[in-house]
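Input set for joint prediction.
Command: fold jointly, output tokens.
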Amino acid sequence: MSLVPSALLHSTLDAGHAAYRHVIPAGEPWIHEIRAGEYFRIVDLHGNQAVDTLFYNAHDYADRYSAQDTIRTQANLYLTTGTRLISTGGTVLLTIVADTCGRHDTVGGACSNESNMVRYAIEKRYMHACRSSFLKAVMEWGHRGGHPGGLEMDKRDIASNINFFMNVPVTPEGRLTFEDGISEPGKYVEMRAETDVLALISNCPQLNNPCNAYNPTPVEVLIWDAGSRDPLGREP
Amino acid sequence: MSQWPILWEETVQPAASWSHVLKRGTSLRITDVDGGANAGALFYNFECPAERYNMPDTLKAQHIARLTKGFVLYSDMGRVLCSITEDTAGWHDPIGGCSSRALVLAKYGEARYQEHRNEYYCNGHDSFLVELGKWGLGARDLTANVNFFSRLDTAANGAITFHGGNREPGSYVELRAEMNVLTILNTCPHPLDPSEKYNPKPVHLSLRRVEAPGPDDPCRLSRPENGRGFTLTERYFL
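tokens >
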């Protein structure tokens, strides 16, 4: 089965009824549990902001989002409405139920001090990067025993991530291209948690890449209670 | 590189697992003996396995969605684990991942050791975990893998399909180790291989000592990014 990309679908959920709302400034991490059945929306407030995102099975952090398993299960490189986000253990973590952007990347990964040195210049080591935000968040989360079983987290838990709102097409010749974004201010992606998950976001601080017009901006995350939306996704 | 004597060689049986620490300055040739093999592989810095092969860093540094001669495998720390110095297959898949127990069961049915002895059906996920376990590593270390000798095609809408024409007998790829690289490998079929029959193939391995990459090394010069990657790798050993 392959998905039709650009399956633009709006949500029926009203932001005014969200149980949780938070604006993540550029360059900061956000880590939060989302319960099975809850709806999770990420809003690209200013357009073309890279939202580097990882998910974990909240009951077993070793069972985490897998880019390869997600791509292979859908037989498609791009994420959009209908895509199930699959873990290394084959768990369906979340399903994308609405998407006004139409395409999201999961092969481009997250920036780091070290990958910036390779990609741009060795002097770029000292610029803030996503994988430092990821590390700070997971080490603090593990340290304060965020998981009831007291599972520790460290760099080994920083797997290949999703880049919401990023457009990274692959050509038939096997080239990876970084295209101008197809997102705009206010575009969003919405997911339903299919099991209890831990969500981890680095709101990307990248200043070396034209994909965000060299201008990292805030994004908003919203969570609605389970049952807030028709489970079959039918419009009212 | 064939002027250097082979230090050792062996055949990895179909649907079998293998691991070894490739030493900096050696080169591993992997040969698809019969055609149609798939060699799933993971790579770690043996001295600090938290540093490991990173699929996105490898692809975005080189603007590629395939692996072949002239490209390198990056760790998450901006260093080159291995360089691909020779390749007659032309395309190795970095995206398709590995099979799971559920996938193999759904696709091929069940074949247990009890009835089938060493012909029993293995899957890539469990094979990686068992081989990782031998080195004290586990599920948190299971990252995106490479599939040597397999190729995926990508359509404009992102749909991916297994490419059947990449399967010549005798095809080989050579990996020059630029660090001491723990290499975890298995010969389970590619998860998107459309074959209706469970039909894993062997690969042959041979190891040679090789010259360190010089200033004019093709992998170093293939992109400015790789020049910096080699510089960072060489600094690690100073």
